[in-house]
């Protein structure tokens, strides 16, 4: 019987690879595939005594089949968001790079459903960036220590932060990548809404500038006289200040002038800023209305965004994407931390 065969071809996005073993087991469990009926080609690594599929063709019946190609043995260091089980003692995986579904026009919708199902089993190359963390010694003053920050797996920013967030991210990333630029960004919202998680993602998108990180326990040290001279060693960089409530609140509420606010003003839009070209990202939990108005002035403020709980729909969608059971039973808004906590507890 001749059929007008079509091909739907899906390469894994975001430089992902798919886990062969999980896909095959899923097809056996859900599509009742007979593993002895799969047409395959294998590759054998003699010194490791390991064999894996390089190509597999599987007929699912009713004019639908799937081809898994580009089989290989992964590197040990992979991001594994679904906690898939490694295939070897060395914590490596049997992977494929391309999934193709073959179908007739009448089974096109079924083919798309199949691809959506099996493309979930993804692994990602591990990515890290270097932060220069600010440290302080009473005798020697300020210095930095390098730390590696792993890039979190965020396949869709809209799932994690709402439908309008992608525009915020693209605007902020564009401004941060600009050479010889200044300004300040406020990322705020209740605890657990994903501010730090997002910053970890954001900084892995920036390779053009040095990243200077002020940890929460050193934020108040920014008022010391030696802080600005220390920062002058890092022109055209990005300063990241976490939990910055204590240094950005309105100065009229303080008995003593807030030297930290003055420092931020000078860096973001003063003469010092013109010389150093340094941008600033701050995170905090308080309301924006409590912030010193001078920091919010147009021309100084790059981006201001409030992180909030995910809507019921977004919480359900993200939970389903993360493989959390009972995603459709979510009935109230959830913070990002609450969603990921459910993922951890479901392991």
UniProtKB/TrEMBL annotation:
MF term (GO), any: ATP hydrolysis activity
ATPase AAA-type core domain mapped to chain residues: 186-306
Pfam families in alphabetical order: AAA (PF00004)
UniProt-listed InterPro entries: ATPase_AAA_core, Mitochondrial_chaperone_BCS1, P-loop_NTPase
Domain of life: Eukaryota
The protein, known as: ATPase AAA-type core domain-containing protein
Protein's organism: Rotaria sordida
């Amino acid at each position: 019987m001749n059929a007008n065969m079509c091909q739907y071809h899906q390469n894994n996005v975001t430089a992902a690879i798919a886990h062969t073993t999980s896909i095959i087991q899923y097809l056996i469990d859900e599509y009742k595939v007979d593993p002895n009926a799969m047409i395959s080609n294998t590759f054998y690594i003699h010194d490791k005594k390991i064999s894996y599929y390089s190509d597999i063709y599987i007929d699912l019946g009713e004019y639908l089949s799937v081809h898994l190609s580009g089989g290989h043995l992964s590197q040990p260091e992979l991001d594994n968001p679904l906690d898939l089980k490694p295939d070897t003692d060395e914590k490596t995986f049997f992977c494929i790079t391309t999934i193709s579904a073959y179908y007739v026009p009448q089974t096109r919708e079924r083919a798309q459903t199949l691809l959506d199902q099996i493309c979930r089993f993804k692994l990602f190359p591990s990515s890290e960036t270097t932060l220069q963390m600010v440290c302080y010694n009473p005798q020697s003053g300020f210095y930095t220590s390098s730390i590696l920050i792993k890039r979190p797996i965020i396949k869709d920013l809209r799932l994690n932060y709402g439908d309008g967030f992608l525009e915020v991210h693209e605007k902020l990333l564009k401004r941060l990548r600009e050479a010889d630029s200044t300004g300040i960004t406020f990322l705020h919202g209740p605890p657990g809404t994903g501010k730090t998680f997002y910053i970890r993602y954001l900084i892995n998108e920036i390779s053009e500038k040095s990243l200077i990180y002020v940890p929460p326990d050193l934020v108040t040290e920014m008022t010391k006289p030696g802080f600005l001279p220390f920062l002058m060693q890092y022109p055209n960089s990005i300063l990241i200040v976490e939990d910055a409530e204590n240094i950005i609140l309105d100065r009229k509420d303080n008995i003593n002038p807030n030297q930290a606010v003055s420092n931020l003003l000078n860096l973001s839009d003063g003469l010092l800023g013109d010389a150093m070209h340094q941008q600033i990202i701050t995170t905090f939990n308080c309301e924006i209305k409590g912030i010193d108005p001078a920091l919010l002035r147009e021309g100084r403020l790059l981006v201001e965004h409030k992180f909030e709980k995910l809507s019921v729909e977004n919480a359900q969608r993200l939970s389903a994407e993360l493989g959390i059971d009972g995603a459709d039973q979510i009935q109230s808004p959830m913070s990002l931390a609450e969603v990921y906590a459910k993922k951890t507890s479901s392991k």
